[in-house]
């Protein structure tokens, strides 16, 4: 194995090596004899086998044992400063996905390379329900990330009002089927990703089950028909795949996700809400739904922000860079209140038939 220092800013001064992990987070390594600097410079090249490093350091005037090098490399790896140069992907992938791979650097270590994380995404299939501002934006990010296949479902046609925020469509596509137009855009932008356009109205869980039979993740980017969140929830339990949903209500941007067997689910939330509202008037019950706003106030900037946040959560599920942040948790941004960020989790409900069914695998 050829351990390599990641592309991080490194400063060396007399007696100290400073490595920046974040713009505001530095690691100071004591280096009275200059041996750490010599090791860091060798590791930055990423050209040497670990077994050859003691001899190289000794040749440079820093007598070092194999054990010293092993300990130093383990310590640097614990700080997530190293990656395995032998695990680099092929040259074409390096060219096309350079920034994606550098992003994965943040999560890579000697045991898990950036290439491994990209590989997981590049072999993933995602079902996107809805080809509006949110679905179109998520599609764009998924293509940029290089997923293998996206199935996008909608039954709408492009309307003039969509051009405020649905950037996969152009003025020349008014009246055209959204999914056909989105797939045409995708073929021009990223022909290596297979985009399947399905012109269909999603009206029940069985439809979602059929559409998602071979997928790794579902993105729910539609707010119609009423109840589509619960339908998607049920279908995803049957499929055993996670899903992510989001929207914009009044001035609140929100997104959340469900991983069957691991997080509380959307039905749990519904049951908690029924408990909270028991005894209140029916009109109050029906009026309080955590669905997107029936009046669409989603501007381009809001749609892009929300699409990006959902695509990041998708990346967490697909590549497992880190634990998803919105599992059983409402992530919210109050656009109308100086971008206040909040995260509110919900609990499993004891009467949830779906979570009960998968309780063996749950927590
Ligand atoms: Zn549940």
TrEMBL record:
All copies of domain THIF-type NAD/FAD binding fold, residue ranges: 116-352
Keyword tags: Nucleotidyltransferase, Transferase
Signal peptide: none
InterPro entries (alphabetical): ThiF/MoeB/HesA, ThiF_NAD_FAD-bd, Ubiquitin-activating_enz
One Gene Ontology cellular component: cytoplasm
Source domain of life: Bacteria
MF-aspect GO terms: nucleotidyltransferase activity; thiosulfate-cyanide sulfurtransferase activity; ubiquitin-like modifier activating enzyme activity
Pfam families xref list: ThiF
Listed PANTHER family: ADENYLYLTRANSFERASE AND SULFURTRANSFERASE MOCS3, UBIQUITIN-ACTIVATING ENZYME E1
Name the UniProt record assigns to this protein: Molybdopterin or thiamine biosynthesis adenylyltransferase
Species the sequence originates in: Micromonospora coxensis
